[in-house]
From TrEMBL:
The keyword Isomerase does not apply. InterPro entries: Alpha-catenin/vinculin-like_sf, Vinculin/catenin. GO terms for cellular component: cytoplasm. This is Catenin beta-1. It holds the Pfam family Vinculin. SUPFAM superfamilies: alpha-catenin/vinculin-like. Belongs to the vinculin/alpha-catenin family. The keyword Cytoplasm applies. It is found in: Cytoplasm. It comes from Cirrhinus mrigala (Mrigala). Keywords: Cytoplasm.
Length: 66
């Protein structure tokens, strides 16, 4: 929910040509995404390796790389 709110703030910042607000909010999104990746990656340590964990870790890598 917080990421969605931040995305909406980014849209408003774009509309208002608020470069600093856009940069600040985009940084907040990157920080939240990094925390999600950290939590999910740590949680995968509790699961047996398999297709599910591989797919989840692939998704976290995709999120990290974008």
């Amino acid at each position: 929910n917080h990421i969605l709110e931040d995305v909406n703030k980014c849209v408003i910042a774009l509309q208002e040509k608020d470069v600093d607000g856009l940069d600040r909010t985009a940084g907040a999104i990157r920080g939240r995404a990094a925390r999600v990746v950290h939590v999910v990656t740590s949680e995968m340590d509790n699961y047996e390796p398999g297709v599910y964990t591989e797919k989840v870790l692939e998704a976290t890598k995709l999120l990290t790389d974008t």
